[in-house]
Amino acid sequence: MKKLLPFLALVFLMIFTAACSDSEEASKGADGEWTPDKAIEIVSPSGAGGGWDTTARMVGKVFNETGIIEQDIGVVNKPGGGGAVGWASIHEKEGSNTDLFVSSPPILLVPLNGQSEYGHEDFTPLSNVIADYAAFAVTADAKWDNLNELFDDMKKDPSSVTVIGASSPGSMDHIQFVKIAKAAGVDVTKIKYVSDQDGGALTALLNGSVDVYSTGVAETVEQVKAGKIKVLGVTSEERLEGDVLSDFPTVKEQGIDATFVNWRGFFGPPNMDPAAVKFYEEKFKELSESDEFAEIRKKFGWSEMYMDSAEYKAFLDEEKKDIKSLLEELGLAK
Fold first, then answer.
1. pLDDT in tens, 218-250
2. Same-domain pairing of 126 and 195
């Protein structure tokens, strides 16, 4: 019997290995490349209706409607902590090839200001897909008609103007305004910024509780159409195309030499299969080049900004250095 034990152990090992191999092959396509073997879930680390949520849903919609990805794609909202709750939920899925999330500059900002234990280095960057831009809005009857008028007042007394955004202090809506104000000569350490992460920022602007709303371009269009607000400037290199959007003056054309790009892309958990990373890179590239997604970009005022996994990682590493310097000046880096 003792002589049979090594033989039986070898047979068991061969059966186990074959079973694992069969399981692995279940996620391979006919050409031997990796394909999803179950539904893909994209986490939006925010509530419904914001930039992350809209991007995730539009991407999933185009993937499925065009057949670029045939597997079902669902979007789940996991708000909290400026994105940290959603990121933590994906980090727990280490090694998964079908759990993704959408993110943007907060994945650099939030860890740097100490509000998340996870940063971009803790995940697998897949592809960046778009560039969005900041917009600085005031009420339609505000005394300022351009950014220079606003910043002239802020140079005299930075705290006389209250700025509101949907992100926490040290995160995107705050930093995008600070970057432009700094380039205009404002003492950014004295800027009065209010965070409203419960969806009340626009209401606060309209009822006069605050003076300036720092947000994304897409979030301003309907209110501008309704005649309730005016946009003093957007942070794109050139004027955006589209209904209403083309009327928004850029920061640069007002003599302020600065821009802010709200890049937006997709990540997976740590330790994804390299074959799965390759799959998503190619699919996001196909999406980016499609006519259908070009229409989506036009609708929301987004620009094309595709990067593959390696390019995305290098870009994020460099962006983090720049952002850290600004946070340190504000005394917000941890």
1. 889 999 999 999 999 999 999 998 889 999 999
2. no
Task: Give per-residue burial for 79-97: e unless 16+ CB within 10 Å, then b.
Answer: bebbbbebbbbbeebeebb
Orientation angle between helical segments 51-66 and 274-288, nearest 10 degrees: 90
Please, which residues have CB within 8 angstroms of residue 252's CB and are 6 or more apart in sequence?
Answer: 237, 258, 259
Burial level of 310, CB count in 10 A (0-12/13-18/19+)?
exposed
What is the predicted pLDDT for the residue at 184?
98
Mean pLDDT, to the nearest integer, of 35-56? Answer: 93
Contact in structure between 181 and 154 (CB atoms under 8 Å):
yes
Encode pLDDT of 8-19 as tens digits: 444 444 444 444
Give a yes or no: residue 97 inside a domain.
yes
Helix or strand holding residue 131 (H, E): strand 124-139
Within a 10 A sphere around the Cβ of 43, how many other Cβ atoms? 25
CA 88, 194, 209: angle at the middle one, nearest 5? Answer: 140
For residue 199, what are its two tokens? 């969806």
What CA–CA distance (Å, rounded) separates 144 from 166?
22
Q: In angstroms, what CA-CA distances link 4 with 1, 162, 203, 234?
A: 5, 81, 78, 76
For residue 234, list its beta bridge partners: 135, 250
Residue 110 within any structural domain of the chain = yes
Helix 172-183 × helix 309-330 angle, to 10°: 70
Q: Are 191 and 198 in contact (CB under 8 A)?
A: no
In whole angstroms, what is the distance from residue 104 CA to residue 264 CA?
5
CATH number of the structural domain spanning residue 299: 3.40.190.150
pLDDT at 264 over 50: yes
**Of 66, 16, 76, the residue nearest 40 (C-alpha):** 76
- pLDDT for res 81: 87
